[in-house]
Amino acid sequence: MTITAIDVAPSEAEDTVAISTGESSFSLFPQFPAEIRIKIWEAAIAPRIIKCKHSNNLNIFTGPSVTLPLFNVCQESRETAFFRGEYKLVSASPNMIYFSPIYDYLWFDAGWSSLIAQASTIHNPPSKSQEDFAQSVPDYMLKLRKIMVHPNWSDQRMKPTVQLTKFTFLKTILVAADERSIGVQSKVMLDTIYDIKMYYNIAKRDNPSIQIPQTAVGCLGWTGADGRRIYHSNEDNRQLVGIFENYSAMKDHQQMLREEEWRFTRDRFTNPQAKFIAKLERARELSKKIQKSKGSSEMSLHPRHSSVEESPRLITEPPEDELPAYREAASSNVSQFFRGWT
Predict the structure, then answer these.
(1) pLDDT band at residue 12 under the 50/70/90 scheme
(2) Which of 328, 321, 326 is nearest to 268 (CA)?
(3) Which residue, of 9, 51, 262, 270, has the greatest Cβ tally within 10 A?
(4) Sheet strands side by side (includes 239-244)
(5) What does the pLDDT look like over 242-268, one tens digit per residue?
(6) Which of 182, 124, 173 is nearest to 148 (CA)?
(7) Contact 63, 97 (CB under 8 A)
């Protein structure tokens, strides 16, 4: 199928398009037919997670601070992304955030409420903020294909107060779960999936034309360099790293994470860097000096001193920044540096 709406002349493409991979570039890319280039750009569109918080009758959108790469490659890639993804600007401050109802996930609170009607709710009805969410979003968002919702943390059967059936184009509903705690939270996630399916089954009785979307657990994790960090900034740049429909799949992913952590630890300390070894050696030398100083000081104490507390203050431990970290010291590969320490 030819897409004439975003065709770019070969001469223009040659000036703007170049596929770069590391130190090399694919200079023949501009010579490809426009239809092939467009398909390549389209395949490069990566889904993102855009959060939406409904508060005081306003929708506040937040997302990754880094914009979609295709927006900055060239004019052709940008036009392809906008044409295929139907991107719309949802926030201009503090960052420009574009949302695609075709590719991106809209993450929001489904507003869980009990299926069992209570007498108190008759006199004190719940807030309408969540119920009005589907009506509060722009019309183009009603065409979104993918959403992500917070789980139902209650141990009761619940239903979403957001009218999910209003999103008639919906194909996928993911229950958000953090990668590091997916094993512990598996029951909560699976119960939430059951609640969503039950909500749609009830709705389908009244309207048989309703299509029940795929419901699964969406596993969020840090990728790239962020995945190797212990601490992260307040900005949530986690990515969707897995989609699981059952407990077995979540356990397999948890086991894979443990194996990756073990390999990282093994590779990190199998061949310690020279700087790390020098640090350990300095710590060992400092420890020897302290022990020697402590021994000579104890021998020089006057007999009238009844306790060490009465003697001049002794340095009992080296500065904190000179000693190796606990994980480093506990490694079997570096334990040789501590042999002989007393």
Answers:
(1) very low
(2) 328
(3) 51
(4) 58-62, 49-55, 105-108, 146-149, 172-178, 214-221, 239-244
(5) 899 888 888 888 888 888 877 777 776
(6) 173
(7) yes
